[in-house]
Amino acid sequence: MSRNIIAILRGITPPEAVDIAGRLIDAGITRIEVPLNSPDPLQSIASMVEAHGDKALFGAGTVLQPEQVADVAAAGGRLIVSPDCHVPVIEATKRLNMLSYPGVMTPSEAFTAWRAGADGLKFFPASLIGPAGLKAYRAVLPKDLPCYAVGGAGPDNFAEWRAAGADGFGIGTALYKPGESPGSISQKAEKIVKSYDEAMT
């Protein structure tokens, strides 16, 4: 089962990347991003792709410039996530046949991203938009355009976001914090997957 959960591993380092990715995959999370403001992110992505590329989709977050898209592709990443709606990044991503999830907060940004070819939208920060805001957006956005709630969505409110029209979620510090033990990450991942499955079925 492929779940619409993107694990955001901000701060992860190459020595721990393969183990943690494996634990997330075992728990049922198969979409994983390494923000580019992490230590040596491209090496972490390359290592995870080499070890687990047949079982999960890997890529980068906090992608701000189109030049960075090519770097992620060279590392084997296929997923590009941004905190903002920057059309050149979306276009560069689609030219390389990668998946584009730009960050949006307003209807204008959402439609700009969609028209530029985004595969889905990252509503960020979700805590400021709220489920009521997303519900209003969903009334006018294309029905088949995936919408992810990121920054304020988690296992305690998946169901509320789902009712508002969220198709998926990006999970950061609720799943991973630098220095956290792999066992703790496994436990949190299992809880998140269980809550997701309950909310989305």
TrEMBL record:
Broadest EC class assigned to this enzyme: lyase
InterPro entries xref list: Aldlse_KDPG_KHG (IPR000887), Aldolase_TIM (IPR013785), KDPG/KHG_AS_2 (IPR031338)
SUPFAM superfamilies for this protein: Aldolase
Catalytic activity, EC: 4.1.2.21
PROSITE patterns (UniProt xref): ALDOLASE_KDPG_KHG_2
Keywords on record: Carbohydrate metabolism, Lyase
Keyword Nucleotide-binding: no
Tagged with keyword Lyase: yes
GO molecular function, one term: 2-dehydro-3-deoxy-6-phosphogalactonate aldolase activity
Pathway stated in the Swiss-Prot or TrEMBL entry: Carbohydrate acid metabolism
Subunit structure: Homotrimer.
Family from the record: Belongs to the KHG/KDPG aldolase family.
Name of the protein described by the UniProt record: 2-dehydro-3-deoxy-6-phosphogalactonate aldolase
Organism: Thalassovita autumnalis
Native organism taxonomy: Bacteria, Pseudomonadati, Pseudomonadota, Alphaproteobacteria, Rhodobacterales
